[in-house]
Each structure stands twice: as C-alpha cells, then as structure tokens.
Write a structure and sequence with these properties.
Blueprint: E1 3-9, H1 13-23, E2 28-35, H2 42-55, E3 63-65, H3 80-83, H4 107-117, E4 122-126, H5 131-139, E5 147-153, H6 168-172, H7 174-183, E6 188-191, H8 193-198, E7 201-202, H9 203-211, H10 214-220, H11 224-233, E8 238-239, H12 242-251, E9 256-265, E10 276-278, H13 283-286, E11 297-304, H14 306-317
Parallel strand pairs: 1-2, 1-4, 2-3, 4-5, 5-6, 6-11
Antiparallel strand pairs: 7-8, 9-10, 9-11
Organism: Amycolatopsis acididurans
Domain Inosine/uridine-preferring nucleoside hydrolase: 5-309
GO molecular function: hydrolase activity
C-alpha cells in the first residue's frame, strides 16, 4: 500500500468528494475515518461517513465518532443551509446503507490505536472543525512523532465564508483551531478558502464525473443544494470542493504550492472571532516580537495548477 492517511471529517458535500478521493486512490493506505460535529450533527456526519465508504466499496476502513460539540463554547450554527439538513443535499439516503458498524470507544481511541500501530508516520487530513485533533494532541502528546503532518482545510487570508472574517471550520471551534495551528509543533499545511475557491469545479466537470460510472453519478447527485448555494453566494455555475483540495495535497504532497507564515487564531468575542491571522509581511517588515501574531508558523497553501488539480480530482474519482 501507499502512504498512510487518516481523515477527520464532518460530511458535508465537499467532504464526500474528499473521502471518495482517498478511498479510490490506489496509492493511499486509508487507515480510518473519524467524524466530528460541524456541517450537521455528529450523528449525521458519522452516518454519512459510513455510507460514503460503503459507496466506494471500502468496508475495510473503520469509522469512529468524535466530538459532538466544540471544546469550550457551544456551536453557534451549522451549515445545513449550504449542505442540506442531512449534510448531503437531503440525499444521504440515496447512498448505500453502511456495511460495518461504527467503532466502539470513539474517535480518539481509534486515532490512538491507528497511530500506535503504524510502522511509519501517518498523515492526518482534518477537514472539519479541529476539536478531535486538539483533544488527541492534548491527551496523547507522545504521539506527535507518529504524525507525518496535518493537512488542514480551514481558515482564510482575505475574508471568511461564515462571517466577514472567519471560515466555517475554524469558526466552529476557534479554541481547538488555535491549539492545533498555533500551540502545537506538528508539521501542518493549512489549505484556506482563498485557494479552494479558485479550485472550484463547474457543471461541465460534474457532468463528466456523473458519466464516469455509478460512484461518480452518486457523488454528482449529492450536489444540488450545494450548487444552488454557490450560484447564490459566489455567482458561479459550479461548486467549491474545499476538502478534496486538502486531501489532494495529503495524498500527493506538492500538488499545492505552500509558503511558511506565522499564524494566530482569533478566539475573542468580537467580529473577528474564528479568523486566521496570517502574517504575510516580509521577514524584515515583521521585526522581532511585534505585531501580535504568534511566532509559530504553518505552511499555507497559496497556489496550484488549477486545471491540473481539477484533472487530478476527476481522474481519481472516476476510477
């Protein structure tokens, strides 16, 4: 098998594409999937993850349910108005019934067991709120060395999608995001909205996916509510597959171009709550110990070959 990967997710239409991308990539050893609250309730995200793996014929992949709420403060809102009440445009029941049961003991237990058993460092792709990952790193710090890197879909450099400043995954649990992105030392790639919006796929791309076979057709059928939302919010005849962009980087390192930047996450209760403050000034302009941005840095994905990435996604999803 290929590189080892765990996906932490809150499916979610774009999560559905991301999970399928990993599940259908022959060069990926998908060790497990953990669910988290986010786009919809934990019960729904967990069921969606099980059904998506069944769709892709991957009953070998264990699924465990994780955090049902943020670390500290209640979640203010979900994203059913974008993804549908069930997370999949109201069409989750069109997917196969789960083939295996959810793993007993929860997401952290599964993450610990998979990492401890791994004979090489494992990449984790958190594509929902970062609550599970914050809990894992806080409770099992010795496992940091078993994590090759985190490839996180989240954050925004220019403006948010949930508030003027904040992207949904970070906004859903800013305290967890800060612990992971700012306070931890695990290598991390942050894949922000600024890039994922540019990687949007149009209805022509979705049509090719639908024509590729039963799995592609099933994925395309999950998109109507999501497509309608993007037509309204961004004026595009297509969808942003945010989480699939991050998973593409997780399974094919270097497909996204990254740059190192200091980062801070706003956990205050003002209008900036949940925003990611990425210091893109030159090293000389930053000075020493000034500016209020933490000294820790992450690799921020800033660019890619857009057509090449879309072709990469389509080719693998259409297998």
């Amino acid at each position: 098998m290929g590189s080892k990967l765990i996906i932490d997710t809150d499916p979610g239409v774009d999560d559905a594409f991301a999970i399928s991308l990993a599940a259908r990539s022959e060069d990926v050893d998908l060790l497990g999937v953990t669910s988290v609250f986010g786009n919809v309730s934990l019960e729904s995200t967990t069921r969606n993850a099980l059904r998506l793996l069944a769709l892709n014929g991957r009953s070998d992949v264990p699924v465990a349910a994780g955090a049902a709420r943020p670390l500290v403060h209640p979640q203010q809102a979900r994203a059913g108005h974008i993804h549908g009440d069930d997370g999949l445009s109201g069409r989750s029941a069109t997917l196969p019934e789960p083939v295996r049961d959810v793993e007993p003991g929860g997401a952290i237990k599964l993450l610990v067991s998979l990492l401890e058993a791994a004979d090489e460092p494992v990449t984790i792709a958190p594509i929902g709120p970062l609550t599970n990952i914050a809990l894992l790193l806080a409770a099992y710090p010795h496992l940091r060395e078993k994590i090759a890197r985190l490839v996180v879909m989240g954050g925004a450099l220019a403006h948010g999608n949930t508030t003027a400043a904040a992207e949904f995954n970070v906004w859903a649990d800013p305290e967890a995001a800060r612990r992971v992105l700012v306070e931890e030392s695990v290598p991390c790639v942050l894949v922000p909205l600024d890039l994922t919006h540019r990687c949007a796929v149009d209805t022509g791309w979705l049509g090719k996916l639908a024509a590729s076979g039963p799995v592609g057709a099933a994925l395309e059928r999950l998109t109507p509510d999501y497509l309608a939302s993007y037509r309204k919010s961004l004026g595009i005849d297509g969808i942003a597959v945010h989480d699939a962009v991050a998973v593409a980087e997780a399974i094919s390192p270097g497909i996204l171009r990254v740059e190192d930047y200091p980062i801070e996450v706003d956990t205050t209760f003002g209008p900036g709550r949940g925003s990611t403050l990425v210091d893109r000034r030159s090293l000389g302009a930053r000075g020493e110990g000034e500016g209020g941005v933490a000294k820790s840095s992450v690799q921020v994905a800033v660019d890619t070959d857009l057509d090449g990435l879309r072709e990469f996604l389509l080719t693998r999803l259409a297998r």
